[in-house]
Specification:
Layout lengths: L1 H71 L3 H14 L2 H18 L1 H12 L6 H15 L5 H11 L7 H14 L3 H13 L5 H16 L7
Length: 224
């Protein structure tokens, strides 16, 4: 009898569970189906968005390549127009890359125009600070030949600190600005920093030999 009682209890329990499940389904089936549909729509939308983003990026890559080819062929006006068009509607990374390339193209024939384009990048708070600093560096490079050396030093000194990623180029330009201004003490200070930095690139160390020789020679005086 004990076995029959246990069998009866199990059957009652199973029936009870089935009844509870049926009640739960009747009460919440609409919500469950709606949730599943929302999940499917969400996954489908996400997949579509990913596909759309990939296509947009591929199209931007092609346009960037075509604009770069125009620049390589010497068709700079056409290249600038193509880069300007791409910068207006390119997705994230390509928009930033295009703005940098456009500034470089402007700088080929108009140093101040290119520097001004880099200034706009440096002032854009939506850009990673590393790229803002690169824009400041590029603007200083374009202005180097024509501007008063003292006027470009503020941005360069900001970039020349020991933890700054662009410090090597910034220090080189600061040293050269000293040579240009015949301020050999100022130049020597920056060349010494270059020499003391263990991470100074090999190419810069080779140029440093020339720079230090120029500093040691001092101002050239005419004997005539």
């Amino acid at each position: 009898m004990a076995a029959e009682d246990e069998q009866f209890i199990r059957e009652v329990e199973e029936e009870y569970r089935r009844d509870r499940i049926a009640q739960f389904w009747r009460r919440y089936s609409t919500l469950i189906v709606a949730a599943l549909l929302l999940l499917l729509v969400g996954v489908g939308g996400w997949r579509y968005w990913q596909h759309s983003q990939a296509q947009t990026a591929q199209a931007a890559a092609v346009r960037f390549y075509e604009a770069s080819e125009l620049a390589e062929q010497g068709k700079h006006d056409e290249a600038r127009a193509a880069f300007e068009s791409l910068a207006a509607d390119a997705p994230g990374g390509y928009a930033l890359l295009t703005r940098f390339r456009l500034a470089a193209e402007l700088g080929r024939t108009d140093a101040e125009g290119g520097a001004t384009a880099y200034d706009a990048l440096a002032a854009d708070g939506n850009i990673n600070p590393v790229w803002q600093d690169l824009a400041r560096l590029r603007a200083s490079m374009l202005r180097f030949d024509n501007a008063d050396p003292a006027k470009i030093r503020t941005d360069l000194e900001r970039l020349a600190g020991p933890e700054q990623i662009w410090r090597h180029t910034a220090r080189e330009l600061l040293g050269l600005s000293g040579l240009k201004a015949r301020d050999y003490e100022f130049a020597s200070q920056w060349f010494d920093r270059i020499a003391a930095d263990r991470e100074t690139p090999a190419g810069l160390r080779q140029r440093l030999e020339i720079y230090t020789a120029l500093v040691a020679g001092g101002p050239v005086t005419s004997t005539q």
